[in-house]
Give the backbone structure.
Amino acid sequence: MNFVGKSMGFGRVLRISLIYAALIGLGALFSFPVIWMVSSSLHTLPEVFAQPYQWIPDALQWQNYARAVTILPVPRFLWNTIVITAPVMVATVLSSALVAYGFARFRFPGRDMLFSLCLATMMLPGQVTMIPLYIMFAKLGWVDTYLPLIVPALFGSPFYIFLLRQFFMAIPRDSEEAALIDGASRLRIWWSIILPQARPALATVLIFTFIGTWNDFFGPLLYINSPEKATLTLGLNLMKTQVLGSGVVEWNVLMAASLLVLLPNVILFFLAQKHFIKGISMGASK
Amino acid sequence: MFYSLYLSFTASSLLSPPQWIGVENYRRMFADPIFYRSLGNTAYYALLGVPLGMILSLGLALLLDAKVRGQQVFRTLFFLPSVTNTVALSLLWLWLLNPEFGLINTALEAIGIEGPLWLQSEAWSKPALVLMSLWTVGGQVVICLAALQGVPQELTEAASLDGAGPVKRFFAITLPMISPALLFNLIMGLVGALQVFTQAFVMTGGVQPGSEGGPNQSTLFIVLYIYKKAFQEYDMGYASALAWALFVIITLCTWLAWKFSKSRVHYEGGSA
C-alpha cells in the first residue's frame, strides 16, 4: 500500500485538483442562477435590461421588495398559507403517528394486508384520485374553502406512516410493558412514552410536511378560486400573470417576490439540513 | 379510485350526474391527436431528462464522495435548489431563459453562440424544461452519495491490490454496489417526469383557455392535458380516462424498469 501511495504522489495531486476544479465549476453553475436572482431583485428596471449586465448595482433597490408585497396582498397570502400549513402539520404528524403505532404494536387479523394496501396507495399517481376527490369536495360545497387542503391530513400520509412505523418498531417495549402493568391506556403510552422517544422521526415528518404544504401549487390551484384566498405559491403565480401581462415586465420585482417565497424554505433548510438528508436517504432505502 | 375508473366510462360534468357511455371515452382518446401530442411531449421530456439527471447526479455524487475539504458546502449547493418552491424557481428560470436579457443567452453570447429562443421556440421549449430539471437534481445526488458512502472500503482496497485500475473498480465494484440506489432514482425520476406539471404550467403560459401549452403545444404534457380537460372544460369523464391511461403508463414503466434491472441490481445479503 505504501509503495503504491508513493508512486501515485503526483497522480494523486492531479486527481484532487481535477476534482476541485470540477466541483467549483459545477458549484458555480448551480449557484449562478440564485446569485443572479438576488442581483436582479436589487436593480432598477433599466439596470436589469442593461447590456452589459452589471452584477452589483450602483445602489441597492430595496424598494423592489416593498413593491413586491404591495402589488398583490402578499401579507394576506402569507396569512392564508399559515392558516393552511399549521393545521396540516399538526394533523399529519399526529394521525400518521397514531396509525403507525397501531401498525407497529397491535396484532390484528389482516394487519399486514392493510399495511401493504396503505403502502400501495403511495404508488398511485395523484392524477387518478384527484378528479373523484374534486367531485366529492364539490358536492360537499368545499370548493374555494381550505377544507379540501386540510381535512385529508387527518387521515395521515402513507409515506410518513411507513417511516414512523419503522422507527417505532425499533423502540424497546420494556417501558411500555411496565406502563401497561401500571394500568396506563394505550393512547396514554403512545402520547407519553412513544412520541417523546420518536422526536427525531417526528421532526423529519414535520419538516417534510411543512415543505410540501407551504410550497404546494396543485392543491390550491384546484380548489381556491378567489384571489384573496390564495396561498403564497398561488399568489406568486397570480403576480406572474399580472406582471407578464403588463407592458414592461418588472423582472426585478418578480425576482424579489420569488425570493421572499423561497426564504422560509432556505432558512428551514439551513436549520435542519440533517433532517432533509436523512429523510431523503431513508425514503430510498425502503 | 374505483369511482375514477367508473367515471372514465361516463360522460360527466360537474353539473349533471354521470351518464354511462361505455368505452366511448377510450375510443375518443385513441383517436385524439392532442392526446398523442401530449404523450409524445411527455415521452420526450422523460427520455431526455431522466438519463441526463441520473448521469449528472451520479457524477456529482462521485465528486462529493472523493472526500475533499468543503464537501458539505458543495453538497448544500447542489441540494438546495431541489427543496424549494417550484413556482418561484419557475419564475427564476423564466427570467434565466429570457432570450434577450436572460443570463443563459447572455453567457452563450459571451462565448460566441447565439442562444435559442428557449421557451418561445417549439424545438427548444422541452430542452429548456429539462435543463431546469437538471438544476433540481439534488435529491438524487443525496441518494447516490448515501449509497456510495455505504460501499465497504475493504472491497475497493482489495480490488486495487489485485491490480484493478480506478475505471475497472468503478464498474466492477462501485456500480453494482450502488445499483439499488440507481434503480430507485430511475423509478422516481420516471414517475416524476411522467407527471411533470407545475413548471410547464407556470413557464409556458399554462393552459389558460385559448392558450395551448407552449409554442405549438410543445409543452402540453399529459398531466397538463388532464388538468385542462377536467378543470377548464369540466369534461370529467374524458379526463378520468386520460388519468387512467397515465396510470397504466406509469405502472408499466415502473414495472419495466424493475424487470429490466432485476438481474442487474445487486442487493446485499440475498438475491433480488
